[in-house]
Amino acid sequence: MSIGNLGKTGQTCFLLFKKTFIVISVDEEKGSSTNSVIFMSTDSVEHEDDITSQEANDRLVLEAVQDVLKEQLLKRGVRILTGLGKYLKQLDKEGTGLLDKAAVKRALQEFHLQVSEDALESAWQVLEGDAGGKADYGEFTRAVIGEMNEYRKSFVRKAFMKLDFNKTGCVPLTDIRKCYCAKKHPQVISGHSTEEEIKLSFLETLKGACSKSDEVSYGEFEDYYEGLSIGIVNDEDFVNIVRTPWGI
């Protein structure tokens, strides 16, 4: 019994048994069938469909949580994301990068991020994996809050690479202070703030994200710009904000 043709190759499927069908390739230009016969299990096809369906459902779960949190983050995204990342690291006493749901819930509450119990439970089930009741909290925050697109991230990386002279993945705050230029900041141009005021505000916020008092890791640097990115719709506007103070 023929099931149907598959694609441009002229492949035709024939049902052999309840769970198995074969694919015979036909050369459309020559009008003849080739000798290649592929046996395929309908179980494997159904399994792939199940995985695709599950991935789609997981994505919907996470996007629903993102929508809820985005509204809460619009006006205070930078300080929340930098502070949240630092707080989660402090809870991770063993330094494994993993935390249980209660710890993550406590962190969200600490920063007044309101997520319903059902939504949190659904998101947790998606991300928990096989970690024995724990999840990678970095992955969790990226999944439920969202993250910059790759275009934006590429400029954040360029800025950090310019600062990271020794390629260690960490930059001393003294170097950041020397390199940050606020001359073209909108508030400086308008006369509402001085260059020094803008620089100090930036350094204070960035320092609040640091697990060490005298240096910034790439992850902490990226957290700052993740928070900033939330409130900026246009990619080029965001890129200009990154490029201008660092001269990239």
UniProtKB/TrEMBL annotation:
Protein name per UniProt: Calcyphosine 2
An annotated Gene Ontology molecular function: calcium ion binding
EF-hand domain: residues covered: 151-186
Record flagged with keyword Calcium: yes
Keyword Signal included in the entry's annotation: no
Species the sequence originates in: Canis lupus familiaris
InterPro entries tied to this protein: Ca-bind, EF-hand-dom_pair, EF_hand_dom
Alphabetic keyword roster: Calcium, Metal-binding, Repeat
Regions crossing the membrane: none
GN (gene name): CAPS2
Matching Gene3D superfamilies: EF-hand
